[in-house]
Amino acid sequence: MAMCWAPEANVRAPSSIGEGFGPTTYADLYSFATNTWSLTGSMNFPRFYHTMTLLNNGQVLVAGGYYRNAAGTSGVVDTAELYTP
Length: 85
Prior knowledge:
This protein is mostly beta strands. The protein has one domain. It is 0% helix and 41% strand. It is built from no helices and 9 strands. The strands form 3 sheets. Strands 1-2-3-4 form a 4-stranded antiparallel β-sheet, with no helix packed on it. The chain has a 3-stranded antiparallel β-sheet with strand order 5-6-9, with no helix packed on it. Strand 7 and strand 8 form a beta hairpin. It starts with a strand and ends with a strand. The mean pLDDT is 76.
């Protein structure tokens, strides 16, 4: 799971590893104030082992990584997306 610090002192964790150890489009937000995780907006493409960069406007640039589909095929993700929680 990749994570990055958010300006409001929370942690964003786009693309969790889901049941069956495959990537998902889900994203989680951790609140230090309440010590809890909550679901937030989803990404467009499921990926894992990706990079994340927090931008000045609060969006997260998510790039690269790997995918694995239900048939077990895996490969490199050659796209990037802006994630807005």
